Every structure is written in C-alpha cells, then in structure tokens.
Amino acid sequence: ENLALLNDIVGAKQFADVDTIAEINELARIANAIQTVAAGGTASPALTVEDLAKIGLDTSKVTTDNLAAVLAAIAGKDNGGGETDSLGELQSILDSVTATVQTAMNDIRDAAQNNTATDNSPSVTLYDLVGVIGVNADNVAAINSALNTTSIDGSKADTPAKVQTIVDAYKAILAEANDADNTAGDGTTDVTPTVDPTPAQYAAIGADIGAAAT
Length: 214
Fold this sequence. Notes:
This protein has helices at 2-11, 21-38, 49-54, 67-75, 87-114, 124-129, 140-147, 160-176, 199-204. The protein is an all-alpha fold.
C-alpha cells in the first residue's frame, strides 16, 4: 500500500519533479508518513499542509486549523492502508473533512450572528472540529453565552482564530474566579493569583464593564 501510494504520486508528477534521488526520497517520506497515520501511528516529522500539497493534493481548503481533523480522518481509515493508497482516495478525504469543518464553522458564526447559542450548542465537539481548543463541558455554556452578546456578531466569530480569542479570554476570566470548580463551601484561591484579566479580554467576550475598564 505504501508503494502503491508512492507510485500514484510519482505517476502524477513531471519528469523534473523526480529527476533527483532527494526528490524521490521526499515523496516517499510523505507517502510513508500518510500510511503511518492511517495505521494509527504518529508520523515523524509530523505531516504538514505543505506536505499534502507537495504530493499533488488540492489543499486550497486545508489550513493549520483543520489539518488535525484531516489527519484524524486518515487515521480512521483501514489500518492496512488500502483506503489511503491513492491520491484520489486522499483527495476525497480532504474534500469531505474540509466541507464538514466549514459547516461547523458556519454554525458557530451563525450562532453569534443570530444570538441563538444555547448552553450546549455549539457543542464541545463542534469547537473541537474547527480546531478551537480549551472548550469543555464545564465552560461551554459560558463561552456560548459570549456568542449571544450583541457586541459579538458573526464577523467576530467566523474563523477559528477569532473564536479562539473569545475562548482564551473567557478561560482567563473563569480562572480568576476563586471557585472555578463550583464546589459548595470551597475556599479555593485564585488559580492565577499573579495574572488578572485585562479590559481587552472582557471586551473579547462581549462584556460591558464600563468604568471598570479604566
């Protein structure tokens, strides 16, 4: 299967793309890395968007944010490599995953635009899918409440980076609370005693703190 993938990659190249051993070795490295991931292993070095483009895949919709989802989909295929041993099969995986991730991103954006977020929607899974980290069952309701503020519309939540800013800011504020675990009677001290949330972080989650910002 590794050889089949390498031959398919080479077959799609021009003479000048494979007229040195170094070029062939680089293509082989990427082919082997893909099949390692498909088998449930970890490629070293890790696969990049550039690697996928180098072997001839259309990566115009693959980003550093959704690459993890693409690799997870490859890892979910046949461990023997039979479902990832051609460029056609790999392109289908890329197209399917990037479309799914874009739909998820649109759902988060629309929730912010229309103020329709609920305690658990968008879900933790949806945030994970678009590559936003740090959202869990304990804080998803708080983060979703930020999407419902009038100052956060769709334009402020239409990319993973923008949503990550909201998540990071709210996490910093939640960490400032003495009882982050909501344990009754718990006198736990501030988990970040030397770091205080900034006005920009309050603004990032749509909070209107007025004079407290000065």
